[in-house]
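Worked Example 4.2. Consider the chain below.
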Amino acid sequence: MFQSPTIRLFTLHLTRKADADGNMTNYIIRRLFLLPLTLFAIILVNFIIINLAPGDPVSVAEISSTGEAAKAADRGMTRGETHYLQFREHYGLTLPLFFNPWPSIKEFQVITALGQIANRKQKAADPKEMSSQDYHALRTLWGDRARFIMPILIRIAIDPGEPIEIRKAAANLFIRGGIKQGYIGPDLSSEEKMQNRKIAADNALLHKLRLGEDSPEMLDQKLSQLHAWFLANEKFENFKPEGAEKIKIFFFDTRFSRYLSRVITLDFGTLRNDANKTVISEVAKRIKYSLTLALIPMLFTFALCQVFGMMMAIYHTRWQDVSLNILFLILFAIPIFVVAPFLIEKVALHKTFPLTSIPIPYSGFHSENAIYQNLTSNKRLADILLHIFLPLLAIMYGTLAVQARLSRTAILEVLRQDYVRTARAKGLSRPTILIKHVGRNAAITIVTSLAASLGIILGGSLIVETVFQINGFGRFFYEAIINRDFNVILFSAFASSFLTLVGYLLADISYTLLDPRVSLE
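Applying the procedure from the previous section yields the following structure tokens:
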């Protein structure tokens, strides 16, 4: 069947377009498939780094070389072991990182450890006493293992043939293993509340049965009560896992497995200092501040860097290019912690710069709530813009300096391309060449750079938010590091990684829109 050249060209165009759409769809599907695998690797690396850091979130003091802090920690364990244990269980610090072989611990290993704890010596024949630091670490380690060796501990504790100090140590470790953390959070079910009541009653009983300087009669009475409690709760607590249950504990009763199971359900935990506040809810309160301080500078920077980059490229090696290059080098060299206080002092307080006769606020995202709530919508917008004017300047100047020089390099490279010379030879106007041919292709480099910065949206600008007293996520994340709030730190790493990966995906798609020659194959 005869087809005119126009129809053939149109058909060929539709075929190529369909192929391009199919290639893009396949590419996006592949990238989305790799996204969870990449996030898993990132979570794994961050989890290892954070958990291998010395100390834990409930540490209140470092252990000195002489051991004073360690001795204080020992006394704290005796006075408030329940509270201490609940904190450590809340952060998963009572479990091994990736594999849990503790249910397979042998009885002779337990007796050896109990002898070290009871006598405070590395070996029975060693006359030198164990240091406070080593002693505290040993007690903590075997206290964490206690829940998985409860039958062995109670058997040693009620055995009259064992030395009394070892029996006491076994009983106290048994109590440590029996103490549990209740369910926490703002929305508990009726079943969880009922279990919390039982856990609270069991914890109170076990705490009363702690062994100290008791008489032989009192010792036997407490040990009998502990044995009775063990028999009553043996099946309910599954103190003797066997077979498949042991395998399940080996792989899934670990720090990483518990954390990953929460992440899969988008449960990023609660704050360290307040179990009724979830990480997601606290981030949601602050996200609007960080998004504003991230997206507005990003958009303005993209537009301005193209303008300045174009200007420097057009006037290459002339005084305009040299002057702007020097200016941007100076701006890049000035740290933000110098610029932010400078803007507050010279612009907001002393008004020593031109056009600063209008009072410019230098703290907060908007006026006080009593004033802000009574403003109209337009006045609220003006109030916010006035408050974030200085923070935006402090954020933008350094990024603009970098992106403008990057844009200059990209535009100079495009100007040397053959298709630009062809466009000139065809007689196209200079604005058409610069905007349609040069600017569009040079923007690919800037898009790549901006895509990488998408991951820092949640982080905001820590220094700017702190100096200007804006309660954004950057400041929240900094406080979490100071307080060793692992849930917030891990969420920040997860969210920033996710946004970065999404940013790169959007950048790849943008390439095909900016330059039709780019294929995603």
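The chain has two domains: 68-264, 279-514. DSSP finds 20 helices and no strands in the chain. Compare this with Example 4.1 before moving on.
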